[in-house]
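In this supplementary section we document a worked example of the pipeline. Step one takes a protein sequence of length 171 as its only input; no multiple sequence alignment statistics are reported here. Step two produces a three-dimensional model, which step three serialises into C-alpha cells for compact storage. The input and output of this example are shown verbatim.
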Amino acid sequence: MSDICKTIVVAVSENGIIGRDGDMPWRLSTDLKRFKALTLGKPVVMGRKTYDSIGKPLPGRPNIMISRQSAAVANPDVHMAHSLTEAISLAEHLAKQNGESEICIIGGGQIYEQAIDLADRLCVTHVETAVEGDTSFPAIDSALWRATETIDVPAGDKDSYPTKFVVYDRR
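The serialised model returned by step three reads:
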C-alpha cells in the first residue's frame, strides 16, 4: 500500500450532479478558493474532458491528464496518462519527488467512478440545491466512508448556493 493519500476533491449537488454541458452548474467562488488551497503543490489527476473544461494547466501543481488518445495535449506542463492506474502511479511518483503526501483526483464523472474504490479520502463540497446536469458523482456509501470534518459555508457574494464542506475518510 502506498504512503501517499489519494484524495478525491469534488462539488456535488443534493441530487448527485457535478456537471452540465462540460462545465459546473454553479458559481462558487468560496469553494474555488478552498479547492486551490487543498490542491496547491500536489499532483492533480483529471480526465481529458475536465482538462478541456479548465482550458489550461492549473498553476502551482503538477497536472496529469488521462486520455486514451496519444497526443491529446501539446503542453509541457501537462503529464499524460492512458489510464487511472497509470495516472495515480505517476502522481504518487511526482508527490514523493516534491515532498507531498497527497495526490488529488479532480474529475470528472468517469474518473470519479473509477477512483472512488481506490481513494483514501473524499473532500466533498455538498452544494445545497438540486440542479439539472449530465454528469454525476457516485453515491457515498456510509458503510465505507465516515465524515471526519464538516463545515457549513453560507453563500458568499460570488456563490450561487450555500454549501457544506465534508471530509470523509475510508473506514
